[in-house]
Amino acid sequence: QNEVTKEPKIDDEWLTALGSFRVIHIQQDPASTIWKCQLRKV
């Protein structure tokens, strides 16, 4: 779980303590409070 400052986009790359990941799918809950992002390690 991570905090984001901007809306995530497909093909964004995230650097974490576990390595670098690319966003491949994004879904938002109906209340627009939570983003669910599917990531792939690059």
TrEMBL record:
<dbReference type="GO" id="GO:0016301">
    <property type="term" value="F:kinase activity"/>
</dbReference>
<keyword id="KW-0418">Kinase</keyword>
<keyword id="KW-0808">Transferase</keyword>
<protein>
    <submittedName>
        <fullName>Glutamate 5-kinase</fullName>
    </submittedName>
</protein>
